[in-house]
Design brief:
This protein is an alpha+beta fold. The protein is built from nine helices and 33 strands. The strands form eight sheets. Strands 6-7-5-9-12-14-15 form a seven-stranded parallel β-sheet, sandwiched between helices. Strands 1, 2, 3, 4, 8 and 10 form a six-stranded antiparallel β-sheet that branches. A five-stranded mixed β-sheet has the order 19-25-24-21-22, with no helix packed on it. Helix 4 links the parallel strand 6 (about 175) and strand 7 (about 220-225). The two termini are about 40 Å apart.
């Protein structure tokens, strides 16, 4: 178990954007692990305070997810998950607390067939379906069959290292279900081959006179076991798998997983961590039909590319037991009915459709390794075939039943490999404050787009007609601009050095006051009254009318016990008995102090 070491310091937040989460027990009736919760503390809460709180509640640290700053805790046997969630959630030092929710892998129906029946790659009507209701794989392979420099992580039930379908292509992975470095599939139960079926669709070897062909014939496979032999997994195991895949520099992460809670902060932070690492995240849209694409995680998350399933007639998969999820979160659809894969098994559900799209994504990266998640998503959307399904569902443009359409591998690869270059477009998002006073921090934010889809702005150039060059970053801060009316100009350049047309905005800098004192607030002192020897939590904050100044110091005092702390919030348990006048002052970055604010605290024997 990793251990967290923090220094209790003032936390400075600048240009902060957070993730909003729904209440932890809202929505679908999800299962969770009894006796366990996941907790994330507010920035700046130190290890001493965390340990004191955990000791007070009687919990045990199972593990610490360092890169997500999340604690996996075991609660006392006599307490319920609901009680512990409420207690932690109502503490101001806690950012969120949630159960360790359960999810499961998507459904499949195993059977046996041959390579000639792989209609999803080349549909000739061989299974009674509609000819050309496929992804045009044969045409796409003329462009590329993949690259061994691309890595795809398969988060599933594991893999068979000795199987000829994957020989020479498997990287060392990890089993987070059993916490060991052997992500092999479990002994036969009927569910453990889920990961093998997924890997076979995505990356099975071709031209080896054995079994079936995958979509990408050269990509390296990183097996990450997050589902047990019953095809079930937990939030924390999936989060650990995402972290591992991201740390191993996986280019694409396939998640043929359904029914994970979308409103889990831990899952969302793990997905964001993987996205921030540069990985392309692809997941199934759920197998429970109407509306499921919007509630079944991880596919329902906007951080993933959500994939629904179609049959050999280009109709939406709608078996009584397995129906492709629909909804606003759905991005694209792909073949997912009785797709022929590893050892000629039939495989049905969005678990089969997701690796189809993941295989196309790895092929795209073999042509252009610089493609990002958003760029791959845009290309898949723009090259998808629209109105291939029933007119009542697959309406013109995006719809909730087929998303943007059924993916087309050949069209996507053709788009990535196409020639030509168009100039990017620059945008100034904001310059604030405006007007500003001399010496005030002024924040500049801009961005660029590129019509070439798979290109993006790589250079920025900000200038002022008064002060000249300002910055080569997308956003930055300056406080040394001259008094006057500035014409601010931004240009962006793409990867080929082609510059956009300039865009401009006026900025006025006045010779106003440079610094005003901050204002202090005591948010809470609790409990109050308190009891001698028991911990008392103090919380305060400050604001600064200079807007982009920040607070440098806090100063708490008691008229009985003197100086208490120099932090925004802290805990004390050694206060003297009696009535205290608690005073707080704050100082800004130039050490200008606020007026004091006071509150009475009573400490009883």
């Amino acid at each position: 178990m990793n251990k967290k070491y923090l220094t209790c310091i003032m936390a400075v937040t600048f240009l902060f954007g957070g993730i909003l989460f729904s209440p932890y027990f809202a929505g679908a009736q999800s299962q969770y692990v009894s006796g366990e919760i996941l907790v994330k503390f507010q920035p700046g809460v130190c290890e001493t305070e965390i340990n004191a709180m955990n000791e007070f509640y009687g919990v045990e640290i199972i593990e610490y997810l360092e890169k997500l700053d999340v604690y996996h805790l075991r609660i006392p046997a006599e307490k319920t998950v609901e009680q512990m969630i409420d207690w932690y959630s109502n503490d101001p030092s806690v950012q969120y607390a949630e159960p360790n929710y359960m999810g499961r892998g998507g459904d499949f129906t195993p059977n046996d067939t041959g390579f000639d029946s792989q209609w999803h790659l080349n549909n000739t009507g061989q299974t009674g379906g509609t000819p050309d209701a496929d992804i045009d794989a044969v045409e796409g392979w003329q462009i590329t069959r993949g690259s061994s420099s691309v890595v795809v992580a398969v988060l599933d039930t594991g893999i068979d290292f000795s199987d000829p379908e994957f020989q020479g292509r498997i990287l060392p992975g990890f089993d987070f279900v059993n916490d060991d470095n052997d992500p092999s599939a479990d002994p036969w139960t009927g569910h453990e081959i889920h990961g093998l079926l997924v890997s076979g669709i995505l990356a099975g070897n071709a031209d080896n006179s054995f079994g079936t062909a995958g979509i990408d014939h050269n990509v390296k496979i990183l097996p990450v076991k997050v589902l047990d032999s019953n095809k079930e997994g937990t939030t924390v195991v999936l989060a650990l798998g995402l972290i591992f895949a991201a740390d191993q520099k996986a280019h694409v992460i396939n998640m043929s997983l359904v029914d994970y809670r979308l409103d889990s902060p831990t899952l969302n932070y793990a997905l964001q961590f993987a996205r921030d690492s540069g990985a392309v995240l692809i997941a199934g849209a759920g197998n429970n039909g109407i509306g499921d694409a919007d509630v079944s995680g991880p596919g329902a998350s906007p951080l993933t590319i959500s994939v629904g399933a179609t049959d050999h007639n280009d109709a939406r998969l709608s078996y009584p037991a397995v129906a492709s999820g629909t909804g606003s979160a759905l991005d694209v659809v792909a073949p997912g009915e009785e797709v022929i894969t590893w050892h000629s098994y039939f495989f049905t559900g969005t678990s089969a459709a997701a690796p189809v799209v993941s295989g196309i994504a790895t092929l795209m990266l073999s042509i252009d390794p610089s493609l990002t998640h958003d760029e791959i998503r845009n290309i898949l959307i723009q090259t998808a075939e629209d109105q291939v399904g029933p007119p009542s569902e697959d309406t013109p443009g995006r719809d909730d039943f087929f998303g943007h359409g059924r993916v087309n591998m050949n069209a996507a690869l053709t788009e990535v490999s196409g020639n030509g270059n168009q100039p990017p477009v620059a945008y100034i998002d904001s310059i604030r404050p405006n007007p500003a006073n001399k010496g005030t921090n002024i924040v500049f934010i801009g961005h660029g787009t590129d019509p070439d889809l798979f290109d993006w702005p790589r250079s920025y150039h900000w200038t002022s007609d008064i002060d000249g060059d300002l910055s080569n970053r997308r956003f930055f801060m300056r406080r040394d601009l001259s008094v006057g009316t500035h014409i601010i100009t931004l240009k962006v350049a793409d990867s080929n050095g082609l510059w956009s047309n300039p865009v401009t905005q006026t900025l006025i800098v006045n010779s106003g006051p440079e610094n005003q004192p901050p204002v202090a607030y005591i948010n809470s002192i609790r409990p109050n009254p308190a009891k001698k020897g028991y911990p008392v939590m103090f919380m305060g904050r400050g604001t600064d009318p200079d807007r982009f100044d920040w607070l440098r110091s806090y100063h708490w005092t008691s008229d009985k016990d003197g100086v208490l702390s120099n932090r925004s919030f802290f805990m004390k348990r050694d206060l003297s008995v009696g009535t205290h006048i608690i005073t707080l002052r704050v100082a800004d970055s130039k050490w200008l102090w606020s007026n004091p604010v006071s509150q009475t605290l009573i400490v009883n024997p």
